[in-house]
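Lab meeting, item 3. Inverse folding demo.
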């Protein structure tokens, strides 16, 4: 595992974007696993800026997103499909047909999970997976549990995750209670993983995930077992690490 420290959020985003852009430049037909939330926003903004300058070409890239709320249409303001369109896809030359998210409106959840898992396999798997980590250690929407969920599944979101997501909705009642998520096995099958973390409020959980026991009670701890993980985090998030 490689840990890269940045001075602040902007530095973290630039360093992470460098890793993603290098992947695309060296391997133009890469399959990228993408994440949403507040942490990756600056990463996508940096990539879009470099695209505008002519430094990077996304025309052959394919993407699969980690997760999507169940019950939200792709046009819903808070759907992750809309997040990706607004914050990244609409700003670069990626082919929309090559971008993929779970279908939040699928009526058969088991069939949708199987479809998405088969889709990832049909693309040959993920070359580089971008991740964030939640305050409770979740990656994707793999919440703390008694066992690791292996493949794409529909998960009931726990109260802490609902509270964290409530700021994006008009009220707590509007926050979706379920979401589709890649499973731990699906994530771990990515050839490379890039974890981005910022802020002192993530310092304890990041330390637990990277140095504590591997346990489904801290889903992100599974990353200790992956052969190619790069962590890019700011100084506050890495406050509990003794980095030289």
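The presenter then showed the designed sequence:
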């Amino acid at each position: 595992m490689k840990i890269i420290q940045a001075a602040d959020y902007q530095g973290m985003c630039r360093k992470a974007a460098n890793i993603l852009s290098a992947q695309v430049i060296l391997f133009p037909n890469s399959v990228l696993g993408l994440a949403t939330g507040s942490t990756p926003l600056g990463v996508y903004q940096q990539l879009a800026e470099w695209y505008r300058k002519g430094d990077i070409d996304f025309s052959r890239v394919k993407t699969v997103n980690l997760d999507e709320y169940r019950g939200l249409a792709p046009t819903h303001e808070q759907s992750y499909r809309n997040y990706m369109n607004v914050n990244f896809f609409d700003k670069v030359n990626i082919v929309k047909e090559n971008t993929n998210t779970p279908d939040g409106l699928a009526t058969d959840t088991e069939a949708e999970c199987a479809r998405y898992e088969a889709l990832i396999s049909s693309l040959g798997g993920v070359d580089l997976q971008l991740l964030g980590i939640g305050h409770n250690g979740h990656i994707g929407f793999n919440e703390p549990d008694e066992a690791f969920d292996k493949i794409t599944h529909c998960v009931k979101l726990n109260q802490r995750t609902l509270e964290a997501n409530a700021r994006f909705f008009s009220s707590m009642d509007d926050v979706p209670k379920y979401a589709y998520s890649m499973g731990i096995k699906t994530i771990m099958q990515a050839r490379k993983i890039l974890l981005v973390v910022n802020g002192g409020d993530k310092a304890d959980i990041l330390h637990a995930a990277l140095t504590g026991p591997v346990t489904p009670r801290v889903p992100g701890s599974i990353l200790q077992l992956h052969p190619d993980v790069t962590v890019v985090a700011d100084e506050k998030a890495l406050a509990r690490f003794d980095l030289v």
